[in-house]
Amino acid sequence: MAFSIKSDLKIVELYVIAVLFGVGSSITQISSLCITSNFIGSNSETSGLVYSITTACDKIFSGVIILIIEIVWVFIYLF
């Protein structure tokens, strides 16, 4: 069972939710890159590896969180 949108939800409200979600995601990503940049400092020899590891961890954790949300969503509506 996938997410469903209630029929009384207006399209404008859906756009507002999407914009807020996008802004929040952008702020989180920029904050993560700033923290990574501060962590690297002047040690630029391994900066590519650090940025790659940070990005990979971000993708993995995001996927795990989405999976947990989907599992919880199914258990809430099936049981």
Structure description:
- The protein has 2 helices and no strands.
- With 79 residues, the protein is mostly helical.
- The radius of gyration is 18 Å and the shape is elongated.
- The two termini are 13 Å apart.
Chain-wise SSE layout:
Layout: H1 11-40, H2 47-78
Helix pairs in contact: 1-2
Uncertain regions: pLDDT < 50 for 5+ in a row?
A: none
> Helix tally?
2
> How is the biggest beta sheet arranged?
none
Count all strands and give the number.
0
* Shape annotation: elongated
What is the string of helix and strand elements?
HH
> For this entry, what is the oligomeric state of its chains?
single chain
Strand content: under 5%
Portion of residues within helices: over 70%
Keywords summarizing the entry:
elongated, 0% strand, mainly alpha, 79 residues
Concise account of the structure shown:
The chain has helices spanning 11-40, 47-78. With 79 residues, the chain is mostly helical.
